[in-house]
Amino acid sequence: MQKIYTGRAINIPALAQEINNLLLSEGWESTIMQNPVPPAMPGIMYYDYTIRAMKKGHFHHVENIIIRITGQPNDFKIVVEEEHIGPLGRELINHRLFTNIDKQINDGLFDLPAFYQQPVAQQPIYQQPAVQQPMTQGIRCPNCGTINPPTAKFCVNCGTKLS
Fold first, then answer.
1. Rounded to whole angstroms, how far apart are CA atoms 53 and 28?
2. What are the tens digits of pLDDT across the range 5-44?
3. In terms of C-beta density within 10 A (0-12 exposed, 13-18 middle, 19 or more buried), how is residue 156 classed?
4. Looking at the predicted structure, is the pLDDT value of residue 102 above 60?
5. How far apart are the C-alpha atoms of 70 and 72, rounded to whole Å?
6. What's the pLDDT tens digit per position in 114-142?
7. Which of 137, 123, 161 is nearest to 13 (CA)?
8. How many C-alpha atoms does 133 have within 13 Å on its Cβ side?
9. pTM over 0.70, yes/no
10. What is the dihedral of CA 17, 115, 47, 119, to 10 degrees?
C-alpha cells in the first residue's frame, strides 16, 4: 500500500515519530530508523525513515508491518509492506494509520514553519540554524535544545513533540 503527499511542507521527522507512537500505543513492538540520505543530494532536505513493527498474536502468529517514509517535506510518500496481517492489523493500517495521518496532515499538525519552507536548497534539518532566536521568542526542545517557533507542535530539528 502506498500514499503520496504533495503540496504541503511537512515535518517528516515528526510525522515518522507520530506513526511510531501510534503503533506503540496499539501494543505493537515498533522501532524507527533514519536511513542514510543519498550523497547526490547535498543541501537538499531529503528524508528516508523506516518503521518496523511486530505484534504477536494467538498460537505464535506474528504480524509484521514495515512503513517507509521517503522524500522531501513538500513531496514524499508513505509505503506500507505487511506480512501475515489479520483483521485487526488491517484496521490499524487502513483506518488508524492512513485516516488519522491524512487528517493530521490536512489539519496542519505537521506543517513546517514558514521560514523552513524553502523550495529546494536548505540546511539539513539536523543542523542548528545559523542565527538562533532569543528564548522568549520560541519554545526550546527538551530533547535537543533547538529553539522552535512559538506555535510549533513538534521540534523542527528532531521531531520531538513540544508541550
1. 6
2. 888 888 999 999 999 998 898 888 999 999 887 666 566 7
3. buried
4. yes
5. 7
6. 655 544 444 444 444 444 444 446 788 88
7. 161
8. 12
9. no
10. 150
